[in-house]
Design goal:
The protein is mainly α and 114 residues long. Helix content is 59%, strand content 7%.
Length: 114
């Protein structure tokens, strides 16, 4: 008979442990989701290709650029605007097709690095 008394206690302890583990798992997923949201968005280079540096259309995860690209941007800081977030790519492409500051920078980079 003592087993019957122990079984409900074990079941309750198991339920409590499971609830704690589920709560901790949910908290961990929520924390991870927040970290992902805080990460930088991936970007795409919409400028002209520059030999041995970057090609038009290259995608950079989390906006992380190579050292070579960073050095090139240091030489010509305005070209940084040609690295646009993926979410803004469509609008940037429209800007490149008309006379705009973005289009002017594209032309300057094309001239400088031809």
């Amino acid at each position: 008979m003592s087993k019957k008394k122990d079984t409900p206690e074990i079941v309750e302890e198991t339920k409590a442990t499971t609830e704690v583990e589920e709560t901790e798992a949910v908290a961990e997923v929520e924390e991870t989701t927040e970290e992902v949201k805080e990460e930088k968005e991936s970007s795409v280079y919409l400028g002209p290709s520059i030999t041995h540096v970057v090609r038009h259309g290259n995608v950079f995860l989390r906006g992380e650029l190579t050292e070579t690209i960073e050095n090139t941007i240091a030489e010509f800081p305005a070209m940084k605007v040609l690295f646009v977030p993926i979410s803004g790519m469509a609008e940037a492409m429209k800007e490149l097709k008309k006379e705009s500051a973005l289009a002017n920078i594209y032309a300057e980079v094309a001239e400088k690095y031809k």
